[in-house]
Amino acid sequence: MAKYDEQYKELLNRCKEVNTIGSCAGLLGWDERTYMPRAGAASRATQISYLSGLAHEKFVDPRIGELLAELEQSPLVKEQFSDTAVNIREIRHDYDKSVKVPKELVEELSHTRTMAQGIWAEARKELNFPKFLPWLEKIIKLDLRLADCYGYKKDPYDALLDNYEPGATFETIGKVLADFRKDLVPIVAAIIDSPKKPNISIIERDYPVERQAMFGQSAAAAIGFDFSAGRLDITTHPFCSGIAPGDTRITTRYNPRHFGQAFFGILHETGHGIYDQGLKHEHWGAPLGDSVSLGIHESQSRMWENLVGRSRSFWRHFFPRAQQMFPEALQGVKFDDFYFAINDVRPSYIRVEADEVTYNVHIILRFEIEHAFLNGEVKPSELPGLWNEKFKQFFGITPRNDAEGCLQDVHWSMGYIGYFPTYTLGNLYSAQFFAKAKQDIKDLDEQFARGEFLQLKKWLNTNIHEHGKRYRAEKLVEVVTGKPLSHQPLIDYLKSKFGELYGI
Ligand code: ZN
Fold first, then answer.
1. Is 269 a catalytic residue?
2. What are the residue ranges spanned by the domains of the chain?
3. Is the pTM for the entire model greater than 0.90?
């Protein structure tokens, strides 16, 4: 036993070393996107790629393979969900993926991604899809090669999806998303047809940036973000970076003529931040101290942003405070009008600006297309036509150009095929978790109306965050809610909330 304990210790130490390097790269990345002078970009790319290469080299060390092979024969893996078994399982998962990809492919992918991203940005600006097309073709070919290296049972898509949502397959999530789509499209149609519309001019008034910052920060603190172990800064594309225990950084951007963009963005990133702060410090650097998947991470951000942050009870507490903070914009505004305005639903071309209902339709469209790419059902050259046709079918409108259509997102240029569904998975998980939290904590809405959010935060800490990677997403949902993932909780939530608002 002593032998295995030593080997396990060595494995974890090696894993922690890799994660320490990764966390240094993470801090450099945060700085790059917040305060670094623009002229530093080339040096920063060198620094980050040096650290990433170093971390990769350390992780594919054959010694890690030896240790895993020994430990997999040991009593440490006997209990499937014990701390030791989980760490060994997840390190094996990542190790196998890392060693399966030849260095030559890693380099070609990285080079192609950097080039393709630049070309994509130009093509989008010039509304020139043909310019991007050869790069998209190349990316898809390389992603297929990557999938072949990883290996898969049925569908190359599964191999790539596993990078973002470990263990998920097209078959399992495709079924949930298809069922969800069937129920969602009529809800969107009914909302569009409803004569009831909010007055959104209420939230498009002057909202001074310094006061938005104070208000946003106070809300982040109220829902449980620990500012003694985190910060909020300004950036162009908001993100959250969980750098290390005691250091979780969220970012936002302010629009002086819009109330919601920064505020809900802050709640969203705070949700990610609360997850990172809720991971167990003593497991840092090992899988047990890491988040489950992108989808589960997104479930946390979406819950605070939408299910909590756009709820009536949340605003019972915050609306009077918003009126005090922004008297010029909000004096005399009725609660119900404000609540309707922040829950405006309308079809729009751009995913990142979409509301909480139509957002999922944007994702399902991308999910269907990228899966068809990989299976050869659709050629990259057919993308603009296919996009517009599906868009018309889903939303009843057609993008006026490809910047509003198939060229709007950066993901495919970066080779991130399999990433998009994690956004909607996040929404599905969040609704199912939240329904369970409401069952467990009977007076949740009353608590929110009093400005009390810490019981929900604690519930999330205990039921989700503190497990780290103990359970894969699919299993975690069952452990927490007692049921497999279903689209029903999200549909129920959307129907009840928007049914009332839009009279449908
Ligand atoms: Zn997010």
1. yes
2. 2-151, 170-502
3. yes
